[in-house]
Design goal:
Chain lengths: ~200, ~270
């Protein structure tokens, strides 16, 4: 196994070593698919976006300057491809969109065997995530799922750090609301009958 | 005191210094609005962190790896290593159709785009003039929001024939750059709304099921409606022998659901 840093693999690929790119794909393909799946909420769309991202990476790798981390740059390419897919999905004829919407967002794709979402709670969260407005959704996917630092996300999205933090914050709140979490806190209030978050769910 | 909105973000992230945190705590004790905001943001943050990162389905990198092999080969000092590296990188099936000549393989591997239409394939065929002729081969499904009818079919086949006849003249002339717009130029001209590499496998299998492994090389696959049914349109080229230009074009239509045979049309090239 090649343990050269990403930047070194990029240099080797640009110099004509195809195997270096294969290694980059092995390292990062899952990350790309994950970001696309969580942003797009649809397996088939995510699969297409992943392919588009990897193709774009091949074609643009020469222009990768190495002053940003490769993973930051990779996220930037992936997020831009996802934005394109979201735009195209909006342009789809209404009939097709309605058909798609009838399916739970994360099950709309082909039946790819994947037990990851069977983990308790993850499936609910994935469905709730689809209800979060896309700018906020992208921000929390990068921050809380992929653990990118705010300044990295700022580079990925080409936004000021303050805007990124605000989007992450509002995204978290929107996600909690979509999950039906009760915003009232019990500590400073008198005890009394209270609805559970379960009952609040639509 | 006004709500310390900006500091609440850092509070939720645990990024405040102890004395700042104490100040926010003091505010929270007296402000139900901010308490609710913090509670929701913390819950949302924990929920997002519970999401898993699923394993990507197999094969998503194939097109990129093939392109990488081609690009790397064009940059590497030794072009000869191309065939080996492209195979190692898992070149897709269409590359295998290409004849033995390394020159052809180079052009094909450098040329492909997602929208791999007949015109882009012409470059590879042109390069092979005098050597082996490779038939164009579909690398993605072209998705159209159009509805074709049975009456359209002979006309569509004839137009497809014309598109291959003009762009595949095998005279060695370099064709236009492969481009996405080149894809929608030939017949079955409904506007290509989207192309999908991942559906190619399903589409090919479906056409194979409907037609019992049709003869020839699958040059294009279009997903559109046929008489109101979701359908795959497979365009096959076949010829007398490997190495000679195709002489027959076959347009097969199969239902996406159930892979039933819907229609077929052929045209001599």
């Amino acid at each position: 196994v090649d343990d050269a840093p990403d930047g070194e693999l990029v240099r080797r690929f640009v110099a004509g070593d195809a195997q270096a790119f294969t290694e980059l794909v092995t390292r990062h393909e899952r990350r790309v698919y994950s970001v696309c799946l969580r942003i797009l909420g649809d397996r088939e769309e995510a699969a297409d976006a992943t392919q588009d991202t990897l193709l774009t990476v091949v074609r643009k790798l020469e222009s990768f300057r190495g002053d940003a981390a490769f993973t930051t740059w990779l996220h930037r390419v992936a997020v831009n491809v996802c934005y394109d897919h979201l735009r195209r999905a909006q342009r789809r004829p209404v009939l097709h969109r309605q058909l798609d919407d009838e399916l739970p967002a994360h099950e709309a794709g082909p039946p790819v065997p994947d037990h990851a979402d069977a983990v308790a709670g993850s499936q609910d969260v994935a469905a709730a995530l689809a209800a979060v407005p896309e700018d906020f959704r992208i921000a929390i996917v990068l921050a809380d799922l992929h653990d990118l630092a705010y300044d990295e996300i700022a580079k990925v999205l080409d936004l000021p750090v303050g805007t990124v933090k605000s989007r992450v914050h509002r995204g978290r709140i929107a996600l909690a609301r979509a999950l039906g979490i009760d915003p009232a806190d019990r500590s400073g209030e008198p005890p009394g009958p209270r609805r559970t978050s379960q009952e609040q769910r639509p | 005191m006004s709500h310390p909105t900006v500091r609440l973000i850092d509070y939720v992230d645990g990024a405040l210094a102890p004395e700042e945190r104490a100040e926010v705590d003091a505010h929270l004790r007296g402000c139900a609005t901010c308490r609710a905001e913090v509670r929701l943001a913390e819950a949302g943050r924990e929920a997002a962190a519970r999401l898993t990162t699923p394993v990507a389905p197999a094969g998503l990198a194939e097109a990129a790896l093939a392109e990488a092999a081609g690009l790397a080969a064009s940059r590497a000092p030794e072009v000869r290593s191309l065939t080996r590296s492209s195979r190692r990188a898992g070149a897709p099936r269409w590359a295998a159709v290409v004849g033995a000549a390394a020159v052809i393989a180079l052009v094909v591997l450098v040329a492909p785009k997602l929208g791999h239409g007949p015109s882009s394939d012409t470059a590879s065929m042109a390069a092979g003039a005098g050597a082996t002729v490779a038939y164009p081969s579909a690398s993605a499904v072209e998705i159209q929001h159009a509805n074709y009818s049975l009456n359209d079919l002979p006309g569509q086949a004839a137009q497809l024939r014309a598109s291959f006849a003009t762009s595949s003249s095998f005279d060695g002339a370099a064709e236009a750059q492969p481009s996405a717009s080149g894809v929608s130029a030939p017949a079955l001209q409904g506007e290509t709304a989207r192309i999908s590499v991942s559906r190619l496998r399903d589409a090919t299998a479906c056409l194979d099921r409907a037609f019992g492994n049709p003869d020839g090389s699958l040059a294009r696959v279009i997903a559109a409606d046929f008489e109101g049914h979701s359908a795959y349109f497979g365009v096959y080229l076949s010829g007398p022998d490997a190495g000679l230009p195709p002489t027959l074009l076959q347009l097969d239509v199969a239902a996406v659901h159930g892979c039933r045979l819907l229609a077929q049309s052929t045209a001599r090239l």
